[in-house]
Design a protein that fits this description.
alpha/beta; 6-stranded mixed beta sheet; 10 helices
Length: 268
């Protein structure tokens, strides 16, 4: 099976520019480290027909995993559950364990919890498996459609991270055939000078991908990410070291210096 992953961020506020989609950025990094190959990141408005069409298209592309965020709230424009239910060919329901969990955590009675807005937020497709939200109300859920597993999470970043860490990361462990390793380095060189260095590394180490960020240049130089995706069982850390050593050697030939910051974040 392939390692293709697609990410869907759902919400009219995203496509209208009212809210910055940080969830996709974070998820793409986490999935890549887990070995998944993120092929598409799509932001979608709260339009039921469009959601159904795009999800069906991703399933038809045989994505191994689809991650969705958003659209699990109590208001009429929250349509993710209905869209996935339609793609899976099922109805929807609110599992009692979701209601019970929320009541216990909030010290409320079942009756207090069981009001229409909360029941809507706690609903999932009947074809799905529920995974309790460790930090919020709307649950995470997984749905298998053909060869694709769709994981759905609420939109707030804190809940995305909580659901991913608790439920999705363990499920992804060992799922993919490849592994990824990466590092960020800095070089005292302009992007135009650095580009031939990167191209040579990618030619000689085909599993490596190098990307420079001229807009993020700092006093210690131009930041360059080195990413290695091993698809044939090789140790990506060994291959990453080989790509790094080659990059340093090529830079040194040109009189340039490369510095490594192990604690520097890959995502700024």
């Amino acid at each position: 099976m392939n390692d293709d992953v697609e990410i869907f961020s759902i919400g009219t506020e995203l496509v209208s520019g009212l809210v910055l989609d940080t969830n996709s950025h974070w998820l793409a990094g986490e999935v890549s480290v887990a070995g998944g190959d993120v092929r598409r990141i799509t932001a979608l408005a709260d339009d039921l027909d469009a959601l159904i069409a795009e999800l069906r298209a991703a399933v038809a592309r045989k994505a191994r995993v689809i991650l969705t965020t958003g659209g699990l709230g109590p208001t009429p424009d929250d349509m993710t559950v209905d869209a996935i239910a339609a793609v899976a060919g099922s109805g929807t329901h609110t599992p009692f364990e979701v209601i019970e969990d929320y009541a216990q955590r909030r010290n409320m009675t079942i009756e207090e919890v069981s009001v229409p807005p909360r029941l809507k937020m706690g609903s999932i497709p009947r074809a799905s498996t529920v995974h309790l939200n460790p930090v919020g109300w709307a649950p995470c859920f997984s749905t298998v459609v053909d060869e694709t597993t769709i994981w759905s999470m609420p939109g707030p970043p804190r809940e995305v991270e909580g659901c991913f860490e608790t439920h999705i990361r363990p499920a992804l462990h060992g799922m993919f055939s490849s592994q990824t390793a990466r590092m960020r380095v800095f070089i005292d060189s302009f992007e135009s000078e650095t580009s031939p260095f990167m191209q040579r590394v990618m030619r000689e180490v085909p599993v490596a991908y190098l990307k420079a960020y001229v807009g993020q240049s700092r006093v210690n130089g131009l930041p360059v990410d080195i990413v290695v995706r091993s698809t044939e069982g090789g140790d990506p850390k060994v291959q990453l070291d080989a790509a790094y050593d080659l990059f340093c050697a090529i830079a040194a030939e040109a009189g340039k210096t490369v510095t490594l910051e192990p604690t520097a974040p890959l995502r700024d």
